[in-house]
Amino acid sequence: MGYEGFLRDLARAGLSIRAFAELIGMNPNSVSNYARSGGVPDHLAIIAALVAEMGTQGLDFRGIIAKVELTAKKPRGRARAGQFGGDPQVPLDLDQ
After folding, report:
1. Does pLDDT of 40 surpass 80?
2. pLDDT number for residue 93
3. Are 55 and 21 in contact (CB under 8 A)?
4. Which of 24, 28, 58 is nearest to 43 (CA)?
5. What pLDDT does 70 receive?
6. Residue 31's Cα: distance from chain center in Å?
7. Band of the pLDDT at 7, cuts 50, 70, 90?
8. Number of neighbouring beta carbons within 10 Å of residue 31
């Protein structure tokens, strides 16, 4: 689905990009970044189409989606806990 069609579906559902992202547990910036490529992934397109149709039929999609227990995603990258950006250098053992 193209990004413009995605935005039309969100508008039909009465959602902004921020509201849609919060509804499905995503970062709003991650959703709006798809504007650069001109299209959205299939799973987001399907969710937007279903939510738009449910909204036009007068169904409460917010309550249904709220029932789903979302799990937090693991952070990607090599960063250690408490350290931003990872550690590109291997720690040296200088104790002799």
Report:
1. yes
2. 74
3. no
4. 24
5. 83
6. 5
7. very high
8. 20
Instruction: Tell me how far CA of residue 60 lies from CA of 23, 28, 65, 67, 69, in angstroms.
Output: 13, 22, 9, 12, 17
2, β-bridge pairs: 39
Contact criterion met (CB below 8 Å) for 18 and 3:
no
Is 90 exceeded by the pLDDT of residue 36?
Answer: yes
| pTM of the shown model | 0.71
Helix axes 3-13 and 42-56, enclosed angle (nearest 10): 30
CB of 66 closer than 8 Å to CB of 38: no
- The three-class DSSP label of residue 82 is coil
* 61 vs 16: CA distance, rounded Å: 15
Convert 69-81 to b/e letters by CB count within 10 Å (16 or more is b): eeeeeeeeeeeee
